[in-house]
Every structure is written in C-alpha cells, then in structure tokens.
Prior knowledge:
The chain is of the alpha+beta class.
Amino acid sequence: MKKPVALVLGGTIVHVPLIEKLKQRGYWVVLIDYLDNPPAKQKCDDHLQVSTLDRDDVLQAAKRLDASLVINLCLDQPIGIAVSISEELNLPHPYGQMNIKAVTDKAVMKQRMLDCKIPTSKFLAIERKYKKDLFRLKFPVIIKPVDSTGSQGIVIANEYKEVMEGVGIASNKSLSGRVLVEEYVDGIELNVHCIITQSKSQILLIAKKKMVEYGNRFSKIFIGSEAPFELDHNEKVELNLLINDVVKCFEIKNSPLLMQLFLKEGKFTVIEIAARIGGGVGQRLISTMTGVDIVDMAVRQYHKEIIHTPNFIYNDFVVGTIILYANPGVFKEISGINTNEESAYIHESFSFKKPGYKIPEGISSKNRIGALIIRANNRKELAERKREVLECVEIIGSKGEKLLNRKLYQ
C-alpha cells in the first residue's frame, strides 16, 4: 500500500523530531531544503533541493508527489508558503481563518497590534526612500526586514543618517524590500512559549534571553537563555491577559505561540509574536522543564486532532542555553562537549550545521553552529557551569583552526 506523502519545509534541527513523528504516523517524508545536507536530511525518506521560499517549486512538488500534508513548524516565511499551498490543495493545517501574513510580516503584525491596542514599540514601515521630515521616532531605533529569515539585516541607528544606511542594509535582506523601524525598548527580554487550543492559551515556559552588544551598528545578539523566569502575581495576571488579547487579535485558534517581549516595572511590551514553535532549542527547554512535547502537540493540531492543555509542574532545577557562534571558515566539528569533565554539566548538545558548511561573515543564524543546554540546581551554579563549559568548548575549522567567536561571551 502506498504511503501518504508529507512535505516538510526546512531541514532545521527542530524538524528532526517532526520527521520522526510523521514517519510514525505512516508518512513518506520528503524534505524541502535548498541546502545539500541540512541537519534533518538524515531522518527523511527523500530530499528535494528546492528553496522553501519558492512557492511555485514547492507547489509543483506537492502536486507531483500527490502530497497529503505540507508542513512547517518553526520558520516564519515557510509557514506562510505551507499554509498557502495547503489551502490551494485543500490539505489540512491548523490556522483556520487566521491571516497568516499578520504573524509572518512584521509590519502587518505591528499594525495589527496597534489596532488591537496591544502594547508594542512605536514603529514605521518604510522602503528605501523616505522623507526625513516624516520621521518621528525617538533614537536609538532598531531597523529590521519585515520578512527576512535567520535574524539577518538587523541594525541599530542613533541618528537619521544611520537610519537610511540601515534601511539599505535591511531592505537587501527583505524578501519584499520593505523595512520596519521601531524605537528601542528597554527592560528584561523574554521568550514566552505557549500552546493555544480552541482559542484558549496556556503558558508552557518563560525564558529570559541573554543578549550582548556586538559592533557599533548591530543590535544586541542573542547568545542564550535561562529558564524558568519567575513572575510575581501581578505580572502573571498581566501576562495572561495580554496573551488572551493577542490570541483574540490575531484569531489564533489552534497553534503554538511564541511571544518576544520586554518586561519593565511590571509592564510588558510586545515586540513580535509567531504562531509557531521557536526555531532554536526552545522546544527542548520546554520538554526538559515540563515534560511537554510541543512538537507532538503541533503535529496533532495540523491533523485537526483534539488536544487538551497539559498538566505539568516545573522540575526543581534551572536550565540555560549557550548558542555557539563561529567566525568565518569551514566547519568541521564542535569539540570539548564529550571529553572534558565539564561535559557532565551539559544536559544536551546540538549541532545546527553539518561538517563542510561554509561559515560566512557577520552575526546571524548562519553563524550559529550549535547550542548547549546546561542544567544546574540554582542560578549561581548555572552561571559557574556555563563559564566552565565555555572554557573548554570550541568550534573547529577544516584546517584545525579555532572558530568560536569568544568575544560574544566575554
């Protein structure tokens, strides 16, 4: 009997458990990814070297293979492609009547939040040409593409001249050439991981993001996180009300929800939302702290299965992640995670790239080679263990050179 075909858009490491679960359901899994050897390739049944952002090519593949499912769980732009094709071919997806562009296009997203009175930073959506006398934002500002992938093209500006330079940089990384400029927000930066079932929300995990400044023109760089982040009673009430407003505003019925926000003096400011799982190791943090398998829940939502909000309690330890960035070179391996005493501190390790990957200039997801999850009994011990692990971990290049960008962790 012929197996039903599932197209998975994107060979990211998050899609490894997705592919495994689809194969358990009896699918023949075809991976769509323009790279010749993406991390998830080892798990799929077949691989088509096609861009996940080329809708026509993905659509033709879905038709040619008579696909029963076109799915993406963790990448903003490919989710829009997957939903669009699913609707055209009458295939299942969990998003209902939700405007998927509102959660994948940052300008549309910010305008929707403004219309719904959701607290967010002041912003402008502009293109390459913009009149100075129309600019009313307070400096510094963050400039980013409205629809890029992999945190590319994000810069900070402290005066108008830098704005226009930044717009040029960001627009070159935008699929549409459009750019979002928003006022810089101060406070504690958080990732809030939720699951939405029948329009009802449940917070699974709150993680505090570790950000560092890098270079004069770049915004802060995400180098890891710590969880769980504890809120006081009033903050919990405020956050739950805010999430409910977001769910209603964006008409999210059944989906994971990732919110990036700032907390300052008991008030939250939403920067972005995404109706998806986090693209890094967030799903593993959730599993480690709660035992909840958010990938499985998302797969069941795609199949329109009824799921119930999970009951869980946090484990009595803390976890932290270290995102490993590399300088330019050709990646060979990550060393120091299995042979040193400090490796006992590492709960899990992940390699985002395959040997032979050419690491480019810059600081973006293309420079993220891997990640580590560190477990400890308390935050003081966690900080010590992260420091000790970083002393022995290294990214090795094809010529034996050391490539880990240690400046980020000093």
